[in-house]
Amino acid sequence: MILFISGGVRSGKSSFAEQTALSLYNKSVREKESSSLYYIATAKKSDDEMVDRIRIHQQDRRHTWKTIEEPFDIEHILSNCKKCDVILLDCLTIWVSNVIFDLNYSLEKLESVISTCLNLARKKHFHLIIVSNDVNVGIPNPHDSVITYMYYLQQLHQAIIEQSEIVVEVQAGIPTYWKGVKWL
C-alpha cells in the first residue's frame, strides 16, 4: 500500500504518519506476518536546530523503529525492504531539496527515482508512507530556484497521489482524507 500524507510546516503530519505506520506494523505483528518498521529520515544535520530536531525525533521513536538517516539514496534503501514491511519516508520535501541542490537532479531524474520507489512498494508488497509539505500556498517566491523547486515538488506530489491508495492532508493535527478510506 502507498499512502501519501501532506500538510504545512508543523501541521501534525509527521505525528499522524508515525501513528499510521505503527498501526500498520502492529496489525502485521498481530497477523503473525514477518515485518519491520522503518523510518527513513531524509534531513541532514545542517545546523544546531536540525541536530536537536533529529535527536528529539529519535527519542520519540524509541526502539520499535529501525531508523535510517539517508538524505539522498532512498531507492537503494527501499530495494532492500521486504513484504509486509512498513516504511515511513519523512520527508519528501527535504529529500527533493537535497537532491536538487546538492546533486543537481532534473525533474526527469526525480520522477524516475520516485517511479522506481513506488514500483518497488507494489512489486514487493510493502507499505510505503510518504510525508511531504504543502509548499504551494502563500505568497509566491520570486527566486527562480525556489520556483523550480516548488514546481518539481508539485509534479512529484501529483505522480505519487495518482498511485497512492490513500491520500491525507493534515491541518492543525486533523487529517482530511482526499483519496481512499479512513481506516485509522
TrEMBL record:
This protein's name: Adenosylcobinamide kinase
Residues that hold GTP according to the record: 7-14, 41-43, 69, 90
GO MF terms, alphabetically ordered: adenosylcobinamide kinase activity; ATP binding; cobinamide phosphate guanylyltransferase activity; GTP binding
EC class: transferase
Pfam families found in the cross-reference section: CobU
EC number: 2.7.1.156, 2.7.7.62
Catalytic residues (UniProt): 57 (gmp-histidine intermediate)
Gene3D superfamilies in the record: P-loop containing nucleotide triphosphate hydrolases
Biological role: Catalyzes ATP-dependent phosphorylation of adenosylcobinamide and addition of GMP to adenosylcobinamide phosphate.
Species of the source: Ureibacillus manganicus DSM 26584
Pathway membership, UniProt: Cofactor biosynthesis; adenosylcobalamin biosynthesis; adenosylcobalamin from cob(II)yrinate a,c-diamide: step 6/7; Cofactor biosynthesis; adenosylcobalamin biosynthesis; adenosylcobalamin from cob(II)yrinate a,c-diamide: step 5/7
Lineage: Bacteria, Bacillati, Bacillota, Bacilli, Bacillales
Family: Belongs to the CobU/CobP family.
GO process terms (BP): cobalamin biosynthetic process
Reaction it catalyzes: adenosylcob(III)inamide phosphate + GTP + H(+) = adenosylcob(III)inamide-GDP + diphosphate; adenosylcob(III)inamide + ATP = adenosylcob(III)inamide phosphate + ADP + H(+); adenosylcob(III)inamide + GTP = adenosylcob(III)inamide phosphate + GDP + H(+)
InterPro entries in UniProt: CobU/CobP, P-loop_NTPase
Keywords: ATP-binding, Cobalamin biosynthesis, GTP-binding, Kinase, Nucleotide-binding, Transferase
Matching SUPFAM superfamilies: P-loop containing nucleoside triphosphate hydrolases
